[in-house]
Amino acid sequence: MPESPLALVTGASRGIGAAVARALAPTHRVLLGGRDVDALAEQAVESPGAEPWQVDLSDLDGVRAAVTGIDRLDVLVHSAGTAELGTIESAAPSAWRANFEVNVIAVAELTRLLLPALRAAHGHVVVINSGQGLAARAGWGPYAASKHAVRAFADALRAEEPGIRVTSVYPGRTDTDMQQTIVVGQGKDYTPGDYLRPDSVAAAVLSAVTASPDAHLTDISVRPRPH
Ligand code: NAP
């Protein structure tokens, strides 16, 4: 029997990445990216057949070591991300660096290292972007700038690698630890039902990955809807 296709999902220990891993697990062998070994082990139980792929994406030597042996990769989903917010007046250089390090540089370097494996499989790269990657709101500059940058990364990759499908997914506010931290940090009450469910974003990712081979879903916006 042929082996199932291989998918690597970063940020798979929690939130949107964990939901994407669960959505892909029935049809793919999934590598679960993240730093927290215990959380990855828990997700491996939720996604039968999936295996932890523990690496801190801000440690590029560690990233290089972790991709060793991946010669063929069908799906690479970049969901790991960080959100350091602030106004232009208040944001320190460290906030800009933190966003760019995980949301842009790690995405570019991991993709670059895995390009031969992606080419070998005529693979698919999915970047979990954000509504902030399309238009920046006041107070979100450092994060929004990183998401605009990673949109440019995805567009350039698509233009340079016609054999690989590249999809940017732009979720609105989604019920995850990241969103809860932001809302609580703004001194507001957090009501999970006000936000998109991570499974709904994962369904959009799955629609891109399972699109017929002649179709290339390049950009998908997913907005929360009152319910
Ligand atoms: P989350 O619940 O905070 O999860 C973040 C994930 O990223 C975790 O798995 C975390 O791993 C991983 N991560 C962060 N820094 C890392 C690093 N240096 N090395 C390895 N892994 C790292 O966030 P989320 O809401 O699911 O966000 C997922 C993506 O969606 C992000 O790109 C975010 O910008 C985007 N997004 C989120 C929303 C939203 O409302 N939640 C809306 C639009 C877009 P650990 O467990 O090891 O920390």
Automatic annotation (TrEMBL):
Keywords: Oxidoreductase. SMART domains: PKS_KR (SM00822). Residues 5-204 form the Ketoreductase domain. The keyword Glycosyltransferase does not apply. GO terms for molecular function: oxidoreductase activity. Gene3D superfamilies: NAD(P)-binding Rossmann-like Domain. The keyword Oxidoreductase applies. InterPro entries: KR_dom (IPR057326), NAD(P)-bd_dom_sf (IPR036291), Sc_DH/Rdtase_CS (IPR020904), SDR_fam (IPR002347). Transmembrane segments: none annotated. SUPFAM superfamilies: NAD(P)-binding Rossmann-fold domains (SSF51735). GO terms for cellular component: membrane. Belongs to the short-chain dehydrogenases/reductases (SDR) family. NCBIfam families: PRK08219.1. This is NADP-dependent 3-hydroxy acid dehydrogenase YdfG.
